[in-house]
Amino acid sequence: MKTLLFIMMLAATLQAKAGDNDTLRINKPGNVTIITGDSLQKIIVRGREGDPDYVYRNTIQLVDSNYVSNVSINKDRWDLSVGVGKKRDDGSWPAEIELHVGVGSALFLDKQQGVHLKDQSSYEIFTELTANTFLNRQRKDWLSFGLGLVWNHYYASKDFRFYKDANGDTQIGRYAEGQTPKSSHVKTFGYTGSILYHHMFDRKWGLGAGMYAQKNFSSRVKVKYKEEGKTMKESEKHANVNKSMFGWMGVVYTPAIDLYVKYSPEYVLSGDGAKFKTITVGFRF
């Protein structure tokens, strides 16, 4: 009896509030849950045709003899996204804009002899807005175009430091006699952009692959050490890094968190500076 009453109330609510432009149609729902109480009726639909990750909720509550209806779609997804374009009759969007944040660890490749770097401590942080264009209504395939900001930190090994030589190139060498090493790194700041193709195998697993570019417009050499019992700090602008870099990027979608990898065939430092390349592996939120 409660189920019948709920269906009648839901139909009445939709008739009273829904026109041709806001009617919601869910084709082939995967799982439907109906919860009834003395003053609360709730319906939850999980999955639909072509989109097993779809979640629809409708709550009808009796307040002072009036019914209050609350609707949410995909509320439990951890997505910072905004729909773009004309909304379809099934509630989906043909495109969307998402915000991503990535944190990764840089591993060094193709190092010049005598270049001593610390893999575990070197890292990057980036934030990126992506415009996603879906290639089918099931949202299993899409192209993304991203633009954002990126920070990189490259650390020298414990007993070594970065320094700028007489020609302005950044090199790696030992500390001076009497100096106790603390840390030394090159940091960069710049723009980043990406173009990726994505495919989801099911609701939880998928892959993305494409290219990225990075434009560095700020860099600095930083050194910290102890001398005669005092902590000394050195900082020099213009580390003479490669201002324009490009490479390949991949994303792995998992049930828990997204993973990403970036590789660039470009050397980080330009000119006659210390030679090394990087591959970055990390998490993307």
Could you explain the architecture of this structure?
The chain is mostly beta strands. It has one helix at 2-17, and strands at residues 31-36, 40-48, 51-63, 66-73, 81-84, 95-109, 123-134, 141-155, 160-164, 170-174, 179-200, 206-227, 230-237, 244-253, 258-263, 277-284. An eight-stranded antiparallel β-barrel has the order 6-7-8-11-12-14-15-16. Strands 1-2-3-4 form a four-stranded antiparallel beta sheet, with helices on one face. The chain is elongated and about 80 Å long. The two termini are 45 Å apart. Residues 1-21 and 70-77 have low confidence and may be disordered.
Which strand-content bin applies to the residues?
Answer: over 45%
Q: What does the overall shape look like?
A: elongated
Helix content: under 10%
What is the structural class? mainly beta
Characterize the main sheet: 8 strands, antiparallel, barrel
Gyration radius, in Å:
27 Å
Strand order of the largest sheet: 6-7-8-11-12-14-15-16
Element-level helix/strand string: HEEEEEEEEEEEEEEEE
Distance between the termini: 45 Å
Low-confidence stretches: 1-21, 70-77
The averaged pLDDT comes out at 83
